[in-house]
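Write out a sequence, fold above all:
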Amino acid sequence: MSQSRAGRLDETGIAILRALLELGAPSTCKEIANKAGLDVRKVVGKVRGLMNAGYIERTAEGKYRITDKGKEAVSVK
């Protein structure tokens, strides 16, 4: 029953994805943290795993945006 940790979303990951969805534009970790009500260090520590799992991607400006996979992950609930 244990899935790969990288492919599983925890509460923080879901909060980050929902914040990106609500922001509606590529955003910095600080903007995501403010929107999600999270500590910016927590967001910074989480984005790499979310990128590796395909839920978010980094733009040329160094901001992050949600992918279609990320949108599906948060719209399921």
